[in-house]
Design goal:
Belongs to the isocitrate and isopropylmalate dehydrogenases family. LeuB type 1 subfamily. By secondary structure, the protein is an alpha/beta fold. Helix content is about 40%, strand content about 20%. It binds adenosine-5'-triphosphate and magnesium ion (MG). The site of adenosine-5'-triphosphate (ATP) has 15 residues, from loops.
Length: about 350
């Protein structure tokens, strides 16, 4: 019995392997918490393009559109390209087509992962970067101009409509995190002292902040934010910023907690949502059983939590918390020590360690 359905797109390379882990863990959670998600799986991505000349089968795009959530592995392979020379990346089109304006990148230190920052407080790193995904400097993609080989221009776009949705999303997230013990703080990262677009961004942030008096609102210039992200990241809770700044700072964030296979992400709109690990298809390790499934599993937990809140299903939220806690414990107890960070465990061992801590 299920009235919620998810569209499963494993994609290419290790996307397929970590999706296998996610589906195994999902069925454990379904049994344990007594819910069912109808999952419809479709091929798609670079390998599919090589075989068929299309990104995804007919119907897969519509299945993604009509699903309650999209669970995504990774698409793209370096040697398979569109005629214009860029990599096969249908999910970049999904961001626009499904208006997935809020990229959610939790930056959290898991136990027993390499300490990139020396401070003992590095164990407390637990922040979320909210990346605007549909405009900012990336709005210029495909539209930049080179004039007479003398000059090049790209344009940064900030709209009120998208910014309002983005900030409301960030404040709402901070409020929910505060209920679980976080600081209840949103930091707007900008360069309002230099750019009119960024001053506009900040003005809208301040307007929206007034609707969330229980959440603290602060500003930080992007350069100072970069400094503090490596110097004292534990001072941040939710950070919200323009597309390009977030592109850079989320890699800094990934860097301070130690590995691509540890970084989950979500791309959220008002009508649609997509959940995927932050890493790519990693052809260098594909097919060897070495992929770290942690990012995929944490993305799956984010999906369950989002579905649970959106549809008022307490069991899904409980399952999300249980999965999150199981990952945390598997690392804390040394049962999950992925090869990616120098440990002995491949995809299967990490997945098993997490599943054992759910049941
Ligand atoms: P994309 O263009 O899709 O961002 P990319 O070229 O940046 O992809 P990834 O596929 O993310 O690269 O891989 C970067 C490096 O990190 C590779 O060496 C890869 O093996 C490693 N890596 C990425 N994800 C994982 C994972 N889940 N487990 C282990 N190693 C990983
Ligand atoms: Mg990359």
């Amino acid at each position: 019995m299920s009235d919620l359905n998810i569209c499963v797109l494993p994609g290419d390379g290790i996307g397929v392997e970590v999706m296998g882990a996610a589906r195994a863990v999902l069925s454990t959670l379904e049994k344990r918490f007594g819910f069912r998600l109808a999952a419809e799986e479709h091929p798609g991505g670079a390998a599919y393009w090589r075989e068929t000349g299309r990104e995804m089968p007919q119907g897969a795009w519509e299945a993604a559109r009509s699903a309650d959530a999209i669970l995504f592995g990774s698409m793209g392979l370096p040697d398979v390209r569109y005629p214009d020379g860029t990599e096969i990346a249908p999910h970049l089109k999904m961001r626009v087509d499904f208006d997935l304006f809020a990229g959610v990148r939790p930056i959290r230190r898991l136990p027993n992962t390499p300490a990139v920052l020396a401070s003992p407080r590095a164990a407390d790193i637990d922040l979320v970067i909210i990346r605007e995904l549909t405009e900012g400097l990336f709005a210029s993609r495909g539209k930049g101009v080179v004039i007479d080989d003398r000059e090049a221009r790209d344009t940064l776009v900030i709209t009120r409509a998208t910014s309002e949705k983005l900030f409301d999303f960030a404040f709402d997230l901070a409020r929910r995190r505060k209920a679980k013990g976080s600081a209840g703080l949103v930091t707007c990262v900008d360069k309002a002292n230099v750019f009119v677009s960024m001053a506009f961004f900040r003005k809208i942030f301040d307007e929206r902040a007034r609707n969330f008096p229980d959440v603290e609102a602060r500003h930080h210039y992007v350069d100072a934010a970069a400094l503090d992200l490596v110097r004292k990241p534990w001072v941040f809770d939710v950070m919200v910023m323009e597309n390009m700044y977030a592109d850079i700072l989320s890699d800094v964030g990934g860097g301070i907690v130690g590995g691509m296979g540890l970084a989950p992400s979500a791309e959220i709109g008002l009508e649609h949502a997509l959940f995927q690990p932050a890493h790519g298809s990693a052809p260098d390790i594909a097919g060897q059983g070495l992929a770290n499934p942690t990012a995929m599993l944490l993305s799956t937990a984010m999906m369950l939590e989002w579905l649970g809140h959106r549809h008022g299903r307490e069991r899904l939220v409980e399952a999300a918390d249980a999965l999150d806690a199981a990952v945390e414990r598997a690392f804390a107890e040394g049962a999950a020590f992925p090869a990616e960070i120098g440990g002995p465990h491949g995809t299967a061992e990490v997945t098993r360690a997490v599943m054992d801590r759910i049941a």
